[in-house]
Design a protein that fits this description.
Length: 186
């Protein structure tokens, strides 16, 4: 068994490396640029949302108050007429990138801590690189990659976007696994 304190260096370094790799993926590589589309007649739609008093939050439309109401002919007609969707609304003002980046870093740190916990409880000191890579890679890929699937299953996100996010998760998992394999205590 390996303690979390013995794994502080791979925890912190893998977090930093995943953070840097994710920045490169999202700023330098073009494959995420069309993940989100522009609304048709955007200004009018935004004005209609503003006039309706839509504030920060998550919304589903059309919205049924109960399962019974969801199956009613009225709701069925609304869904068939469309559009239907799930929408997240941010607070007014420019996007707060600093807050998002800090939260992303913390998220990466939490994943590295849990991967370290799992590997530290299942692998002894001196375990070879490949065995560490497999355990940490599987654990971190589950968090970064497989954790993306519910967005398409339940929130209607395009499967193409989800596939790209799962691929990113695979890259982050490989970076995390490689870091732990390299720095695993002897």
């Amino acid at each position: 068994m390996v303690s979390l304190t013995a794994l502080l260096l791979p925890i912190v370094l893998s977090t930093v490396l995943v953070f840097i790799v994710s920045a490169i993926i999202h700023m330098a590589l073009p494959y995420h640029r069309k993940d989100l589309g522009k609304l048709p007649n955007e200004d009018a739609v935004i004005e209609a949302l503003r006039a309706a008093g839509v504030s920060k939050g998550d919304y589903m439309f059309p919205h049924a108050d109960s399962m019974k109401h969801a199956g009613s002919p009225e709701m069925t007609a609304k869904f068939e007429r469309g559009p239907a969707g799930i929408m997240s609304v941010f607070p007014p003002g420019p996007p707060k990138m600093t807050t998002g980046l800090v939260l992303w870093f913390i998220y990466c740190l939490v994943i590295s801590v849990f991967a370290a916990y799992l590997a530290g409880r299942t692998l002894p000191s001196g375990t070879d690189y490949l065995a560490v890579f497999q355990v940490v890679g599987a654990a971190s890929f589950l968090a970064y990659g497989i954790g993306q699937l519910p967005d398409s299953i339940w929130r209607g996100q395009s499967w193409c976007t989800t596939a790209k996010n799962v691929f990113d998760g695979l890259v982050y998992g490989l970076v995390t696994a490689g870091t732990f394999g390299w720095l695993w205590p002897a």
